[in-house]
């Protein structure tokens, strides 16, 4: 009696006809010969398309930003590298109907162009929106008659009372340093009683480190059009001297790049990586 043999699918696959394997190989060779290698022009076009997409993202969607000063400590540190959302707080655009927009709100940390200096980006916390009545007493922000709870703006050890900044706007700008000439003229026109009234289309910004921040108290309101976006998270933080922003010469920049390369692992603040900004 013959013994049954169980065959697998591979074993029962049809046997190719004579010459079929050679014909398949010839077909592959023909297809390979028909392939055209990418020309230098096509390669350049591919690179350009990637660059265009990258520029679009950096221009309209997101942007990186480096904290150069201590005006927002301890919320943001010198050397923090932030990814900034340029969409949410942007003026609404009809050509992007599916994008979520909203107006800036109290407490938002905002990146904006400094009034009068269109090439300088600053980051501060939004304290006043149009129509708000604001004054400070002993450093405490009082908005529309209500004292604000701002734990992020607590005084630092060694901070002393600064009459102009801590009692704003009751002390004349002539009693302070660093107040711009234009703001010294404009400030009195916005005071009603004890309060500074934020006009339409304008916003009042302050740094969290109130005694180390040149903000709206010193140069005035921020127009709505100057608001760029809001920081999302800290993608890299590196220990950076407070005066690094003033070292702009080529040798100083080269020296700093070398320092970063040598101390990347030891001076990176790893605990702040991907730290949300709020």
Number of domains: 1
CATH homology-level superfamily: Umud Fragment, subunit A
Strand/helix succession: HHEEEEEEEHHEEEHEEHHE
CATH architecture descriptor name: Ribbon
Report what the structure shows.
With 278 residues, the chain is of the alpha+beta class. The protein contains seven helices and 13 strands. The longest helix has 22 residues. The protein has a single domain, classed as Umud Fragment, subunit A. It is globular. The strands form two sheets. Strands 1, 2, 3, 4, 10, 11, 12 and 13 form an eight-stranded antiparallel β-sheet that branches. It has a five-stranded antiparallel β-sheet with strand order 7-6-5-9-8, with no helix packed on it.
Key phrases:
alpha+beta, Umud Fragment, subunit A, eight-stranded antiparallel beta sheet, 7 helices, 13 strands, globular
Provide a quick synopsis of the model:
The chain is α+β, with helices and mostly antiparallel strands and 278 residues long. It has helices spanning 20-34, 40-61, 163-166, 181-186, 216-219, 250-262, 264-267, and strands at 62-66, 80-85, 109-113, 121-128, 133-137, 140-143, 146-147, 191-192, 195-197, 202-206, 222-223, 227-237, 275-276. The protein contains 7 helices and 13 strands.
């Amino acid at each position: 009696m013959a013994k049954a043999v169980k065959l697998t699918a591979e074993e029962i696959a049809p046997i190719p006809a004579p010459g079929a394997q050679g014909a398949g190989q010839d077909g592959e060779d023909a297809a390979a010969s028909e392939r055209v290698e990418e020309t230098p022009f096509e390669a350049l076009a591919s690179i350009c398309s990637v660059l265009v997409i990258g520029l679009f993202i950096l221009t309209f969607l997101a942007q990186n930003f480096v904290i150069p000063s201590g005006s927002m400590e301890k919320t943001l540190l010198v050397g923090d590298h932030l990814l900034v959302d340029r969409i949410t707080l942007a003026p609404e655009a009809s050509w992007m109907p599916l994008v979520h927009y909203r107006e800036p709100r109290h407490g938002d940390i905002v990146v904006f162009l400094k009034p009068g200096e269109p090439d300088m980006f600053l980051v501060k916390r939004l304290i006043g929106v149009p129509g708000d009545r604001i004054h400070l007493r002993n450093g405490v922000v009082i908005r529309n008659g209500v004292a604000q709870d701002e734990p992020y703006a607590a005084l630092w050890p060694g901070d002393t009372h600064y009459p102009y900044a801590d009692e704003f706007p009751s002390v004349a700008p002539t009693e302070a340093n660093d107040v711009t000439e234009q703001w010294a003229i404009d400030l009195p026109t916005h005071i009603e009683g004890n309060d500074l009234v934020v006009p339409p289309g304008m916003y009042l910004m302050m740094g969290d480190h109130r005694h180390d921040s040149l903000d709206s108290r010193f140069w005035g309101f921020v127009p709505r059009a100057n608001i760029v976006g809001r920081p999302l998270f800290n993608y890299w933080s590196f220990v950076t001297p407070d005066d690094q922003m003033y070292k702009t010469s080529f040798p100083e920049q080269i020296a700093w790049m070398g320092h970063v390369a040598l101390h990347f692992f030891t001076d990176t603040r790893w605990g702040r990586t991907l730290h949300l900004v709020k």
